[in-house]
Amino acid sequence: MKVELFVPCFVDQFSPETGFNMLKLLESVGCAVHYNPEQTCCGGPAFNAGHWEDAREVGEKVLNEIATDKTLVCGAASCTAMIRNSYDLLFQNSSYHNKYRQLQKRNFELSEFLIDVLKIASLPAKLEAKVAYLDACQALNHCRIKEQPRKLLAMVEGLQLLEISGADQCCGFGGTFSVNAESLSVQMAEQKVQQFLKVGAEIIVSTDYACLMHLHSYIQKNKIQLKIMHLADVLVAGT
Fold first, then answer.
1. Sign of the dihedral defined by the CA atoms of residues 68, 77, 5, 127, in that order
2. What is the pLDDT of residues 24-44, one digit of tens each?
3. Over 70: is that where the pLDDT of 147 sits?
4. pTM for this structure?
5. 52-71: burial string, b at 16+ Cβ within 10 Å, e else
6. How far is CA 230 from CA 115, 158, 174, in A?
7. Fewer CB within 10 A of the terminal residue: the chain, N end or C end?
8. In this predicted model, what pLDDT tens digit does every residue of 84-138 receive, in sequence order?
9. Is the pLDDT of residue 201 over 70?
């Protein structure tokens, strides 16, 4: 299958190796991957902060750069949710509406693409670790992504998948929420990290690097022995 890869701006700026692992993973399951190096952001941060005109400008850039005759695979559920759902609000009654509708039908987050579209049943990845999965709010509530990442993690040899209580609770990032409500955001991060420690997790894994970065900041500041990994990094481990 020919696919367009959308690398989230958080990944591009803070963990570029994860972007390469997304490419490696997709190619390993037989995809012909195209990546446009001119891509930047889906517009989500501006949209969520209420700057819709700025978000629309960024969204137009995405629609101009992405081929709508290919499947778009996003490395974060937040980007998937933005393109799949929020673009509908930005481009109603505009010249971009039909193009958006075409892309909407062919836009998937990485794990849902692998499980729901390609229906893969095995992976050669190996990782000896106790891993707990972090449900990103955008993944869970906007894209209905819950079982797909867990099914993929279960394919990794040596990986022990743990479940935490309150898995559907927010980590406290929420984009500008972590800036505008810093104290509450930190408390939510602390609560989430304690849940991971309680089950004995060694690594926190998620579809969304922004959520992982938020928890990693708390973990680093408090010198806690916990690592973070994007789902794509885990799925190519040991290969």
1. negative
2. 999 999 999 999 999 999 999
3. yes
4. 0.93
5. eeebbebbbbbbeebebebb
6. 17, 17, 18
7. C
8. 999 999 999 899 999 999 999 899 999 999 999 999 999 999 999 999 999 998 8
9. yes
pLDDT of 178 over the 70 cut = no
Three-state DSSP state, 37? coil
If you search the block for the tokens 């481009």, which residue do you land on?
Answer: 91
Query: Both tokens of residue 9?
Result: 């701006």
DSSP string, 144-186: --SHHHHHHHTTSEEEEEE--TTTTS--S-TTTHHHHTHHHHH
Q: Which amino acid would we find at residue 67? A: A
At residue 233, what is the residue type?
D
CATH fold of 2-116 reads Rossmann fold (3.40.50)
Q: Which residue has the higher pLDDT, 170 or 157?
A: 157
Helix (H, G, I), strand (E, B) or coil at 137: helix
In the CATH scheme, what architecture does the domain 121-235 have? 3-Layer(aba) Sandwich (3.40)
Residue 120: is it exposed, middle or buried by C-beta count within 10 angstroms (0-12/13-18/19+)? Answer: middle
